[in-house]
Amino acid sequence: MTSIRPASSSRYRTAPGCAQVAREAGVSQRTLFRCFGTKEDLLGGSRDRFGQVLADTISEQPADAGAWEALRAGLAAVLALHDSREQALERFRLLHNTASLRAGWLEKQLRFQENLLPLIEPRMDAATGNEGAKARAVIATALACLDAALTTWVANDGKGEIMDLYDECLAAVRG
Predict the structure, then answer these.
(1) Which of 22, 13, 12, 27 is nearest to 42 (CA)?
(2) Which of 40, 100, 133, 159 is the most buried (most CB within 10 A)?
(3) With bands split at pLDDT 50, 70 and 90, how would you rate the model's confidence at 21?
(4) What is the mean pLDDT of residues 14-18?
(5) Among 171, 161, 168, CA closest to 89
(6) Backbone angles phi, psi at 7, to 5 degrees
(7) What is the DSSP letter of 156?
(8) Measured between alpha carbons, how far is 90 from 153 in angstroms, rounded to an integer?
């Protein structure tokens, strides 16, 4: 595949079919399935697996690991699920350039935030109170930094390391 045209900005009232997503992305259905494997993966199944790996990896971090450290480990584990850089680039290019897939990905991130909350709250400083609000902010910030890193990585045609870009984005936010 040489390039994928940016998707239209149309909004969907119902979930689009695979043919519609392929047309919007400017690729064949075969290319979609080469990137995503199955219809379930295309429509969110692999993202469910990503969410599980993220949660499992965070849970496996030592109790003294901070929220930022645990989230970074989880995000790195999710990125490691891709078979190759080329597969990751092709998949993220489709996710970022296809409105319906992007909307689904962002919706899934909101679910990740809720699922991760009980794993991150105990890692917050309890002395200052309101751990729930702080944990939500930390999780949302980590996912926003991942999104910024992925968008930059895709725009740079896969040059550099995603986690290095994530670290740079996080450093910019945290000052």
Answers:
(1) 22
(2) 100
(3) low
(4) 54
(5) 161
(6) -75, 160
(7) T
(8) 11
167 vs 78: CA distance, rounded Å = 16
Rounded to 5 degrees, what are φ and ψ at 110?
-65, -40
pLDDT average, residue stretch 123-132: 82
Query: Token pair for residue 75?
Result: 């995000």
- Distance between CA atoms of residues 52 and 81, nearest Å: 12
**What is the rounded CA–CA span in Å between residue 93 and residue 157?**
9
Q: Which two tokens stand for residue 89?
A: 């680039």
DSSP state of 128: G
For residue 152, give both structure tokens. 């930059």
14-52: string of b/e by CB count within 10 Å (b at 16+)?
A: eebeeeebbbbbbbeeebbeebbeeeebbbbebbeebbe
pTM of the prediction? 0.75
3-state secondary structure of 100: helix
Q: Which residue has the tokens 């399935």?
A: 33
How far is the C-alpha of 106 from the C-alpha of 143, rounded, in Å? 10
The token pair that represents 100 in the structure block: 């319906």
**Over 60: is that where the pLDDT of 91 sits?**
yes
